[in-house]
Amino acid sequence: MAFNTFKEAIDWLYSFQKFGIKPGLERITYITKRLGNPQDKYKIIHVGGTNGKGSVCRYLESILEQNSCKVGVYTSPHIQEITERVTINKKQISKIELISVAEVVKPIVDEMIKNSDIPTFFEVFTAMAFQLFSEKNIDFAIIEVGLGGRFDATNIVKPRVSVITNISLEHQNILGDKIEDIAFEKAGIIKQNIPVVTAVKDNAFEVIDEVAEQKNSVINKIDASNWKRINNDELGQEFFISGFLNDYTVQTSVLGGFQGENIALAIGAVEFLIQSGFDISFDVIVDGIKKTLNPGRTEIVSRNPMMLLDGAHNPGGINVLVETIKNDFEYNRLILVIGILSDKNIKEILKTIVPIGDSIVLTKSKNLRACEPIDLKNKIEELGLHKPIVIKDDVVTAVKYAKSVAKKQDLICITGSLFTVGEARDTLFQ
Q1: Tens digits of per-residue pLDDT, 39-67?
Q2: Does CATH number 3.10.180.10 belong to domain 6-290?
Q3: What are the residue ranges spanned by the domains of the chain?
Q4: Which residues, in sequence order, are CB contacts of 275 under 8 Å at separation 6+?
């Protein structure tokens, strides 16, 4: 059956969301095998970890594109449109391209449904991304892990290098309660004899290191000695990066001091490619970093008042956001617009960010997992945090309210979820 409209294709795709998350690689392996294993037809960099994955993917994309490669990137979730999840040379796929590749994958999925072996939304979309990259004859694919690593649908790829950004507590109901358990799941993307670059620390690094040793994988560790911020303002920042092959002075318009670590990780991955024979000059690396954009992550979308969007949605990401606000911004009052999904570590997120706010606007995205604003308010009160709180039932209303009460020298920060940030972007850029 052909899809007559984009909505038909998307409705079909989203129909698999009700089946939730089902760990295992059997279903994605079956689909891709029937497609002729499209993921084996181009070079891949696999990017996992807790925070910073999206930024690392964008730096890698920009560097490789600058090196005249045709580069596909697969990330999740999307901020505004589902087509954002698959880009080729920084351009998201068209609705027609999504319909076309959905029609290729659908007969295989229909057969699985008949056999009561129903794939998940992420498995179907991952197969579609792999197939589309093959059809478009890309040179490189940057593939971001969806959840965990070991049983993530992306983990059937055979990368040239693996990246594990950092590890903090997240999705404990699926990945485990201890940092070592989560590290073990993330380490599942390490492949035999494939190099790894990581910024993982302490006990989590010991787990990564042990798995790398078992897989005979060379591991390069990024730490604070590999990068230093030279200067910064609200337009961008400059870093000195000490790589494994060379030293670099790089500029980026992407904000936040933590980007030094993400840039060092991306450069570390590219240096592994250089060591394995790829011709990539150091100047290309510097140019690629400079041309990187990453919407929805420490993104300034307006001034007077300053408005900052950041999709931080776990305690680690919120910690970094708080440090960025404290260190990189000057303002009179901080107005926080917060919307969080109900399956996140809400108390830790609120405990970290609410204290720095002068005024709190609680809201929820349209996502079915969005936490009710009144529940967020109750949790703030349980934490003993006394702040002026306003509840708005949707992101559009919340953003309008924040803008209406903000003065010229104030800072509005919209955060808590990429879905919240995406709806804010829809409102601001319509």
Answers
A1: 999 999 999 998 899 999 999 999 999 99
A2: no
A3: 6-290, 299-429
A4: 245
